[in-house]
Amino acid sequence: MFYVVLLAMVAAFLALRVYMVLGKRTGHEQPLVRAAEERVPLAATPRTIDATPEPRDSAGRVVEPPAEAGLRAIVSAEGGFDVTQFLEGAQAAYRMILEAFWKGDRDALGWLTESDVANAFGEAIAAREAAGHTLENRLVSIERAVITNAVLQGRNAQITVRFDADIAAITRDAEGNVVAGTLTDAVETHDIWTFARTLKSDDPNWKLSDTDEA
User: At 151, is the pLDDT very low, low, confident or very high (cuts 50, 70, 90)?
Assistant: First the structure.
């Protein structure tokens, strides 16, 4: 009888330890996945617009007030939209587009920008080539990138970003002589670029649709 009671006590102790380790199921646990084919893609989690990527402006903002309503509309229309990722992508696009223009890479400009912008860049490249000029420009740094405006019309979204950057620039003629600029001193530039995309489309890329100077 003593051994029966002892075994019962041991069993109860082990059961208590298992309970303490595993805990109660609350209904919020993630299910175990037994095989790769059982996995189901999760829906994108809606993001808010108060993300704070670097760099920020002197006031610590990455989104100016006029853009907030439009960004909320974009987030509501496409839950996977993320402000931080967009700004990182916009800065990468800023660098890629400038470098493509400086090199005269029309193909790259064709898929990075919308047709009107690509045509304008193409005309500038053609004029530069006709003059026999080449550019040796370099984007030194992007000091600030801030979303200044956002608009959603139907499924067509537009987001405007102000870039404050330092660029070293030099122009050479056909003989290699310096026509303008210098690579030793960077020049402050202030650009306002608008990126556009059709939400929920197969193409995830935002394209440059308009450029202006601040």
Answer: very high
